[in-house]
Amino acid sequence: xxxxxxxxxxxxxxxxxxxxxxxxxxxxxxxxxxxxxxxxxxxxxxxxxxxxxxxxxxxxxxxxxxxxxxxxxxxxxxxxxxxxxxxxxxxxxxxxxxxxxxxxxxxxxxxxxxxxxxxxxxxxxxxxxxxxxxxxxxxxxxxxxxxxxxxxxxxxxxxxxxxxxxxxxxxxxxxxxxxxxxxxxxx
Length: 187
Fold this sequence. Notes:
The chain is an alpha+beta fold. The protein has a single domain (24-184), classed as Alpha-Beta Complex (Nucleoside Triphosphate Pyrophosphohydrolase), CATH 3.90.79. The chain contains 3 helices and 12 strands; from the N terminus they run βββββαββββαβββα. Strands 1, 2, 3, 4, 5, 6, 7, 8 and 9 form a 9-stranded mixed β-sheet that branches. A 3-stranded antiparallel β-sheet has the order 10-11-12. β2 (26-37) and β3 form a beta hairpin. 32% of the residues are buried. The mean pLDDT is 87.
C-alpha cells in the first residue's frame, strides 16, 4: 500500500441524490482476499445467489454484517468468508484494511485486506453464493478499466463505478472498493 486515502461511499458520485443523514443500519465487513493462481495475484469475488432478496446476482466480496459475537471487523470478515466460500480463517493472513465504505443501503462496510497463505478448496454456501470468481489483481488495479455509469434510482439519476471482468459486471460498492484499492497500491 503506497498511498493513504479517505473513506469512500456510494455518495461519492451522488452527493445530492441520496441524503447521508438517513443513517447507518449496521456495521459490516468484507474480505478482499488475494490469492496466487497461475503465477499471479487474484482477488476472490463471489456472485450472489439469484434467489436472494438483496442484491441477487451481484458481484461482491465475501462478507456481511458484523455480529455481536464477532470480536472485531477482521473476525467478522473471516467468519463470513468461511461461511460463504469455505475459506478457513487460519489460511488467511490479514495485512490491513481500507477506509470504511458507506453504502446507499445504509451499511458501514470495512474492507479487510488479506492474503491466502494456506490451503483453500472452495466450498460454496449455495444459499448465498452462486459462483466464486478469481479476478486478476492487475485487472482491478488498472484505473483505465473503470467507467462511471448511471441509472434511475428512487426517482433520480444515480452514478456508480463499474469494472467489467469477462462476463462479470462488477459495479457499485464492490467496484468503488476495488478502485479504492487501486488508488492506494503502486505496482
